[in-house]
């Protein structure tokens, strides 16, 4: 899973994410390193402003995703050849 990578991209610590989700850091760590439920994955994705699939898939090399500073939604920028 790419949760740690996404946290770094968004400038959020695991402790801050755990607080957003009303979880202990240990419970979040288990979800990040174990086999989380779909419900937990949905909660994490929502808190990070990404889709559940983005927690798993590698970003495309021909595009960059940034976060809108106003609404927090992801914006995908694609490079044209």
What attributes characterize this protein structure?
81 residues, alpha+beta
Would you kindly provide a written description of the structure presented here, covering whatever features stand out?
This protein has 81 residues and is of the alpha+beta class. The protein has 4 helices and 2 strands, in the order ααααββ. β1 (63-67) and β2 form a beta hairpin. The radius of gyration is 13 Å and the shape is globular.
Instruction: Let me know the number of strands.
Output: 2
Number of helices: 4
* Beta-strand content: 5-15%
**How do the strands line up in the largest sheet?**
1-2
The computed structural class is: alpha+beta
Major sheet: 2 strands, antiparallel
Query: So what's the overall shape?
Result: globular
* Average pLDDT score: 86
The end-to-end distance, rounded to whole angstroms, is 30 Å
Helix content: 40-55%
pLDDT < 50 stretches: none
Rg on CA atoms, Å: 13 Å
Order of helices and strands: HHHHEE
Write the layout of secondary structure elements.
Elements lengths: L2 H8 L3 H7 L4 H9 L4 H11 L14 E5 L6 E5 L3
Antiparallel strand pairs: 1-2
Question: In a nutshell, what does this entry contain?
Answer:
This protein has helices spanning 3-10, 14-20, 25-33, 38-48, and strands spanning 63-67, 74-78.
């Amino acid at each position: 899973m790419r949760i740690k990578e996404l946290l770094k991209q968004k400038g959020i610590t695991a402790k801050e994410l755990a607080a957003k989700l009303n979880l202990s850091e240990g419970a979040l760590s288990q979800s990040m390193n174990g086999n989380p439920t779909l419900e937990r994955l949905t909660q994490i994705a929502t808190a990070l402003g990404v889709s559940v699939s983005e927690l798993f898939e590698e970003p495309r090399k021909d595009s960059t995703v940034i976060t809108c500073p106003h609404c927090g939604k992801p914006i995908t920028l694609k490079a044209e050849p």
